[in-house]
Amino acid sequence: MKKNPLVGILMGSxxxxxxxxxxxxVLKEMDVPYEIDISSAHRLPEKTAEYAKxxxxxxIEVIIAGAGMAAHLAGTIAAxxxxxxxxxxxxxxxxxxxxxxxxxxxxxxxIPVATVSIDGAKNAAYxxxxxxxxxxxxxxxxxxxxxxxxxxLLEERSRTLKKR
Length: 164
Prior knowledge:
single chain, alpha/beta, 48% helix
């Protein structure tokens, strides 16, 4: 697999970094090259549009975008690229992420954003890996290994509970 980033992780502000770093950790564990940056749909609209327009040329194959409140980042990116975009609504503000969830999931026809749960950056990374696994067999093998480890751990916990 190539060393250039395959996944772009963007967030609306530096406050989002603790959650979005969880996506980076998963990608690192899966040996998927990524890049991470801040790009606000509202405060840096030109940067956001340019990132989306040029991502494919730079080798990016999937974009993960995390934002809270109005959460327009994923939709803005999706409007400027045909690459898969995964939105991570972030828990913030008075509505604790519900507004971000609605904003991220309610996209107009033809401009889809795959949306994970509030603060679901880990699942966004796993979904990005699933998308990439279509093209990269090594990622498919790693995904299978991760799932098997999760299954074995849960089976062990179940056996432990039954012994009580």
